[in-house]
Amino acid sequence: MLKKVIRFFKNVKTEMSYVSWPSKDDLKEGTTVVIIMSAVVAVFLSLVDFGFGILIRKLLLKG
To answer: Would the pLDDT of 42 be above 60?
Structure first.
C-alpha cells in the first residue's frame, strides 16, 4: 500500500513537470476578464429578475 502511495506521488511530480503554467501577465488578464464578465452577468440577471418581478406583480394585481 505504501509503495502505491509513493508511486502515485512520483507520478504526480512527473506530470506536474509537463504542466504549462501561465505567466503573471496572462494570469492578471484572465482574472480581469473573469471579474468583468461576472459583473456583466450579475447586472444582466438582476435586470431580468427585476423585469420579471414587475411582470408578475402586474399579472397578479390585474387578475
So the answer is: yes
